[in-house]
Amino acid sequence: MKILVCISNVPDTTAKISFVEDNKVYNKNNVQFIISPYEELALTRALELKEAASGTITVLTVGLQDAEPTMRKALAMGADDAIRVNTEAKDAMFVAKQIAEVAKNKNYDIIFTGKESIDYNGSQVGEMVAELLDIPSITSVSGIDVEGTTGKIQREIDGGYEQIECEFPFVGSGQKGIAPEPRIPAMRGIMMARKKPLNIVEPVEFTDLTQVITHTLPEAKSACTMIEPDNVGELVRLLHEEAKAI
Amino acid sequence: MNYNNYKSVDYFNLDDFYSSEHKLIRQSIRDWVNRSLKPIIDEANHKHEFPKQIIKQLGALGAFGPYIPLKYGGAGLDYISYGLIMQELERGDSGIRSVASVQSSLVMYPIFEFGNEEQRQKYLPKLASGELVGAFGLTEPNHGSDPGAMETNIVDKGDYYLLNGAKMWITNSPIADIAIVWAKDEQQIVRGLIVEKGMSGFSAPETHNKWSLRASITGELVFENVKIPKENILPNIKGLKGPMKCLNSARYGIAWGVIGAAMDCYDTALNYALERKQFNKPIASFQLQQKKLAEILTDITKAQLMAWRIGTLKNDNRATPSQISMIKRNNVQMALNTARESRQILGAMGISGDYPIMRHMINLESVITYEGTHDIHLLITGFDITKISSFK
Lengths: 246, 392
Ligand SMILES: Cc1cc2nc3c(=O)[nH]c(=O)nc-3n(C[C@H](O)[C@H](O)[C@H](O)COP(=O)(O)OP(=O)(O)OC[C@H]3O[C@@H](n4cnc5c(N)ncnc54)[C@H](O)[C@@H]3O)c2cc1C
Known about the structure:
- The complex is a heterodimer of chains A (246) and B (392).
- Chain A is globular.
- In chain A, the strands form 3 sheets. In chain A, strands 11-10-9-12-8-1-6-7-13 form a 9-stranded mixed beta sheet, with helices on both faces. A two-stranded antiparallel ribbon of chain A has the order 2-5. In chain A, strands 3-4 form a two-stranded antiparallel ribbon.
- Chain A has helices at residues 37-52, 68-77, 92-103, 125-133, 187-193, 232-241, and strands at 2-6, 9-11, 19-20, 25-26, 33-35, 56-62, 81-85, 110-114, 137-147, 150-157, 160-167, 170-174, 198-201.
- In chain A, helix 2 crosses helix 5 and helix 3 (92-103) packs across helix 4 (125-133).
- Chain A is α/β, with parallel strands linked by helices.
- Chain B has 392 residues and is α+β, with helices and mostly antiparallel strands.
- Chain B has 3 domains: 14-129, Acyl-CoA dehydrogenase/oxidase, N-terminal domain (Butyryl-Coa Dehydrogenase, subunit A, domain 1); 134-232, Butyryl-CoA Dehydrogenase, subunit A, domain 2, CATH 2.40.110; 241-386, Butyryl-CoA Dehydrogenase, subunit A, domain 3 (Up-down Bundle).
- Chain B is 50% helix and 13% strand.
- Chain B has 10 helices and 9 strands.
- Chain B has helices at 20-47, 54-61, 79-92, 94-114, 117-129, 241-275, 287-315, 321-345, 357-367, 374-386, and strands spanning 134-137, 153-156, 160-171, 178-184, 190-196, 202-203, 218-229, 277-278, 281-282.
- In chain B, a hairpin with a 2-residue loop joins strand 8 (277-278) and strand 9 (281-282).
- In chain B, helix 8 packs across helix 10 (374-386).
- The longest helix of chain B has 35 residues, at 241-275.
- Chain A binds chain B through residues 13-14, 68-69, 72-73, 76, 181, 184-192, 194, and chain B through 5, 7, 20-21, 23-25, 28, 31-32, 35, 60-63, 66, 70, 74-77, 81, 85.
- Bound molecules: flavin-adenine dinucleotide.
- Flavin-adenine dinucleotide binds next to strand 1, strand 3 and helix 10 of chain B.
- Flavin-adenine dinucleotide binds at residues 102, 136-139, 144-145, 169-171, 213, 218, 366, 369-371, 373, 375-376, 379, 391 of chain B.
């Protein structure tokens, strides 16, 4: 079984968000980057599937050299090798094009993405890769097993779950539930990751279809006033006089 | 408190000196502590019970013998990595860090350094995975700070050694599969032996009623005419320097570990001080509380700098035992003071098991005593300065 897991390198959820270059570019200074959580869960499940059967796991990131520490983490978790497409990740189509280009002759049985990366929340890359490779796309994968060359997949749908089957190859975008918790790399894994191949490939030319005009931050939350549960009168007064809501 | 987003304080930007691999190591152990240790550790301390399941987990994680080479089951990492692992474990609990210290520095280290190839192959991979648990027997009922006066002894009987004596205050002893035991031979030379559970005449009763390190199990090692096969002696070391080298490695880990306990106390106290209001203001706005927090942060920062420096020296094989004594003493005292001051910031909440501070504080009372007491380390520094021994 050959599995490709596409991981993106995103700011840690507690990172302070600011922008530079006329609010067009995210300010990466002093920000800690992590593997986007849904992709980390998908990678965890991919590793389990490989360990239960056999096969190889490749991780892929479209990004510059600063993405390599998170790729090393993926290798430390147990991926066999890594591919970095050496370019800044731009819009979803651009990224999907780069991934499809790498994947097109490699015969991956499953390509995992996350259902969305937690920075730009585009939720498009997996579906676009599937379309570009002309293979099925399965979204919101909250559980997966493999029997022979068939994926037995659970998808989360409104108010419940859907069980489906799909022959290899396909693209699955993982979400919460695909693995209970991300795997923690072991010390030996971290040591061994040093020697695993991290191959760098150059991007294919592709003009972005979208342009970022600007970013804006949400308005700062105003201070929260706590009121004792038995002091309803005060609550009414504040809602009336300060919040002017009633 | 939400531990998952915890970031350790780094006032002097020491992270600049750590590689991305070091940071990944720190984060991995931190994730394990948050996920598997924090939720159970308060109850384990209350019940005075060692959470046995963590042995296999720590083994799988690679927290045992991280600097032992890969071919013996270790991870082949450097000493800064070992220090960061100890720091994160002790952010969880000093007792759990103690378990890892003993297994790594006091059991795997002597087998690796002083053992022969068969001994390394036989024991190290299983100790690394947690399949075997080890203990280290140096302290005796009548000899603590003065181990050179030990009474435990071996007599050469031709085919085997006959071991007699007793060790006390031994971490892991009741659950240990093997113990590294230090005993004098007929020439009064200290030798290291690998004693295995089940050997006739060997018992390891538990020490009950501890008010410190309650989640780590402690006991005695009692030897009554135990026949030790000759192949169980550590061939490549003779004299008291054997156990001292082991302690040196463990003390190094403690110097890092206690920073974790201190950071946990500081983090708890800072968050509490910002949220708790008295006289209509957060208590963090009062100068007396700011003084405590500022001094704690200064102390932690100094300890971090010392730890980083001793780590680089140890990686170059240049850290002296006296330097390690100094940092063990300084950092443990720092952590204990931090725990006491932080506890006060929380007022009555400081004594509650809902917060980790009181637990760290009582744990650190053991840490300031074992592996050389606070006094003894001072005397070591005094001796190093003056070259005059004031021990005897
Ligand atoms: C929880 C716990 C776990 C432990 N685990 C282990 C273990 O795994 N293996 C092991 O071998 N040991 C272990 N120990 C034992 C520990 O190392 C000893 O307790 C320590 O070395 C001190 O010895 P002692 O308790 O006999 O104190 P003593 O040596 O009796 O000292 C008592 C006091 O006298 C002071 N003192 C002693 N000599 C001098 C001097 N010359 N000048 C000035 N002051 C002096 C000391 O500083 C101390 O304050 C453990 C102890 C504890 C509490």
